[in-house]
Specification:
Blueprint (H helix, E strand, L loop, with lengths): L13 H7 L5 H10 L7 E5 L5 H8 L3 E5 L3 H8 L5 E2 L13 E7 L8 H10 L1 E12 L6 H12 L15 H8 L3 E9 L2 E3 L2 H8 L5 H14 L4 E2 L2 E4 L2 E8 L1
Parallel strand pairs: 1-2, 1-4, 2-3, 4-5
Antiparallel strand pairs: 5-10, 6-10, 7-9, 8-9
């Protein structure tokens, strides 16, 4: 079992994340489901499954699906959707060797303390011939949301978060190679995020923050998002990088 205190506060924002951000990852889900050949009868494990959005799509494709997530709130949300989700993180999967045909992780691998160890753990539970499919946000330069987050960091007199090694071109391939995996396909998929009004925009950017914090940064966020305003609210163009590998 994983202590929920170590789950990065995701329990507290599970409902908000599902409401405001879950749809943004759907293009990445579709890309890796297709690339990994997930279809009828495939045994799929989604690591860091959150509210279970990828699992639902894979189940609709006929797969047998299981998820793991260390955040209690995320597990409860996924289970409320009829999904089998266990309490575990990427480094300690509670399954026997060779249990799954595909292991997926979307915006999850970068939370592992050791990405190489995590990918090797994915490979351990993979059946012969199985595939590992990973997707995460591309580098900040490809994401409009990065413009707003940098404005918030400047207003807060703090440094913006760096991209991290998995996000730039070649990052996932390098991680797979380090773990002894062979990349068989990879790509980039556009992942737009929309907000219908200023309030939704601010809540999304400052997910989980209290009312005082939202009020403090509201003007900064709205100003920074000016270039992305549309007749229907806001449209932020972002991207995911994905890769599929085999042992």
């Amino acid at each position: 079992m994983v202590d929920d205190a170590d789950a990065g506060g995701w329990s507290d924002v599970a409902a908000g994340w599902s409401e405001l951000w879950a749809d943004a990852a759907r293009p990445a889900h579709a890309a890796i489901i297709a690339a990994a050949g997930i279809g009828p009868g495939a045994r799929v494990l989604d690591v860091g499954c959150g509210g279970g959005e990828l699992l639902l799509t894979a189940r609709d494709a006929g797969a047998q699906v299981t998820g793991v997530d260390p955040a209690r709130g995320m597990r409860e949300l996924a289970r409320s959707r009829g999904l089998d989700v266990r309490d575990a993180d990427a480094a300690h999967l509670p399954f026997a060797d060779g249990t799954f045909d595909v292991v997926t992780a979307v915006n999850a691998l970068h939370f592992a303390d050791d990405t190489t160890a995590a990918l090797r753990e994915f490979a351990r539970v993979l059946a012969p011939g199985g595939r590992i499919a990973v997707a995460n946000w591309a580098e900040g330069a490809r994401n409009d949301v990065d413009v707003i987050e940098r404005a918030v960091a400047e207003a807060d007199e703090s440094d913006p978060l760096p991209d991290g090694p998995l996000r730039p071109a070649g990052g996932l391939a390098a991680a797979f190679t380090e773990a002894g995996l062979r990349v068989v396909s990879s790509g980039v998929v556009e992942a737009p995020w929309t907000a219908r009004d200023d309030e939704t925009l601010v809540r999304g950017i400052l997910l989980g923050e209290d009312a005082a914090t939202l009020d403090f940064f509201r003007a900064t966020i709205v100003e920074a998002a000016g270039p992305f305003r549309t007749a229907d609210g806001y449209l932020l163009r972002n991207a995911f990088r994905w890769a599929v590998g085999k042992v």
